[in-house]
Amino acid sequence: MERQHRHVIRGLLAAQEDERKLISRELHDDISQTLAGINIQLTVLTKESTYNREVFKKKVEHVRKLVEKSVDIVHHFARKLRPTLLDHLGLVPALHAYMKTLTKQSGLLIQFKVFPGESHLSNPKETAVYRLVQSALTNVVKHAKATQAHVTLQKIPGAITLEIKDNGAGFQTADHLLRRKRYPRLGLIIMRERAEMFGGTFQIDSVIGTGTTIHVQIPLEGSAK
């Protein structure tokens, strides 16, 4: 039953990521291009129109701003589904951009330390690390009542380590939450599965009133278990 449970979760994670990637591409390639085209046409109309020009310009300008807002919304949702930086520039730039946006939105101060050089992670592993950071920091903002978080990504022989630490309220012993049969903390279980599906390890240390630290280690080489 446990093996079946883990297999289902891993299949769900893989399918979810594929769906996010597809939707993200469709948003960027189809909807964004269409709205951008409308915006260009409206700009042309503004320049060419001679009939009641001032009124017409005001109406077109209003519509143009609505289109720009729509494009921004599309890009926002596309980045949430799957950041294009992750595919184009890699893990570290994508994490920098995500943390900068999260700080602006939530006020959480995030310190990010990263090892120099290339990570040599496959795309699926980079995605897993990104989602782990995203899930952990989302939990910090929603539940921890923290003011600061520290994210450290380091390279060690044969693996990389990820540490996410906050100064929030903390919670009940992590091992108990991860292993209890009734009402398990699903978010933590999924985070653990993201690490373990690539042969990695996942550990949480939390002290009520002090904060929480998440430790992840993922091998640089090798396939998923």
Give a quick precis of the structure.
By secondary structure, this protein is α+β, with helices and mostly antiparallel strands. Helices cover 60% and strands 17% of the residues.
What does this structure look like?
This protein has 225 residues and is an alpha+beta fold. 60% of the residues lie in helices and 17% in strands. It has helices at 2-48, 53-81, 84-88, 91-106, 123-144, 174-179, 186-196, and strands at 109-114, 148-156, 159-166, 201-207, 211-219. It has a five-stranded mixed β-sheet with strand order 1-2-3-5-4, covered by helices on one side. The longest helix has 47 residues, at 2-48. It is elongated and about 70 Å long.
Largest sheet: 5 strands, mixed
How many helices? 7
User: Which residues form runs of ≥5 with pLDDT under 50?
Assistant: 180-184
Terminal residue distance: 17 Å
**pLDDT averaged residue by residue:** 80
Structural class by sheet pairing and helices: alpha+beta
Instruction: Evaluate the radius of gyration.
Output: 22 Å
Task: Give, in order, the helices and strands.
Answer: HHHHEHEEHHEE
What is the CATH class name of the largest domain? Alpha Beta
What fraction of the residues are assigned to beta strands by DSSP?
A: 15-25%
From the spread of the alpha carbons, the general shape counts as: elongated
For this entry, give a set of tags.
17% strand; 5-stranded mixed sheet; alpha+beta; 2 domains; 225 residues; elongated; Heat Shock Protein 90; single chain
